[in-house]
Design a protein that fits this description.
By secondary structure, this protein is α+β, with helices and mostly antiparallel strands. The chain contains 2 helices and 12 strands, in the order E-H-E-E-H-E-E-E-E-E-E-E-E-E. Strands 1, 2, 3, 4, 6, 9, 11 and 12 form an 8-stranded antiparallel β-sheet that branches. Strand 11 and strand 12 form a beta hairpin. The N and C termini lie far apart (55 Å).
Length: 204
């Protein structure tokens, strides 16, 4: 038996947290209202309002998500630069049985997030893709963290997931009889990046 150690370097962070409370009647009413005015997406529907967290009924949700975003930047990015992360666009997704959310990434954003408002733990998940070019593609016997081309995580109501916006993801065809409702959002930064003396300074 060969003794060995396998280390993982430069991994992609998938940050998981949760809003540990039930949504208020006002918040739930607002979610239902926005389902009536929607944009057809590829596979499901999205709220017409794509700055949904700026609306008054979502004031408290935005405050809670802002704290989670700040925690992500402290624990994952851990930068000494004078920057402040902030949520840019945000929107609601509604996915019914046999619908899906197409494979995509989020340009013009550093970090993206999803807050799961209503989902079924046994059926609902988010799927990520490793799209690095492979010079040689070998057949795989046992899938693991290093050779997998996709990886999925089950999600449940109240979960919040943050990940790099460049990471391709999707929702496969919806199973179960619930309406999967999620609030998706993008995050960028403002402040000063880099160093003035090193000629790397950038004011955002």
């Amino acid at each position: 038996m060969i003794e060995s150690t396998i280390n993982s370097i430069f991994p992609k962070p998938i940050y998981m947290s949760k809003l540990d409370r039930k949504l208020t009647p006002l918040e739930l009413k607002f979610i239902d209202k926005n389902k009536k005015t929607f944009t057809k997406n590829e596979g499901n529907i999205t709220s017409n309002n794509n700055y949904i967290l700026n609306e008054k009924p979502f004031t408290n949700i935005k405050k809670e998500l802002d704290l989670i975003v700040k925690d992500y930047f402290q624990k994952v990015i851990s930068s000494t630069d004078a920057i402040t992360p902030y949520i840019t666009q945000s929107w609601l997704n509604y996915t019914e049985t046999n619908q899906y959310h197409h494979k995509h990434a989020h340009p013009n954003s550093l970090v993206s997030g999803v807050f799961y408002i209503n989902c079924h733990e046994e059926h609902d998940k988010i799927k990520f893709f490793n799209e690095n070019y492979k010079t040689i593609k070998l057949e795989t016997k046992n899938w693991n963290l290093w050779n997998s081309e996709t990886w999925w995580f089950p999600v449940k109501t109240g979960d919040v997931i943050l990940f790099p916006s460049s990471l391709t993801h999707m929702v496969e065809t919806k199973q179960g009889d619930n309406t999967r409702i999620s609030l998706a959002f993008n995050v960028f930064i403002k402040g000063t990046v880099g160093n003035n003396k090193n000629l790397t300074e950038l004011l955002i």
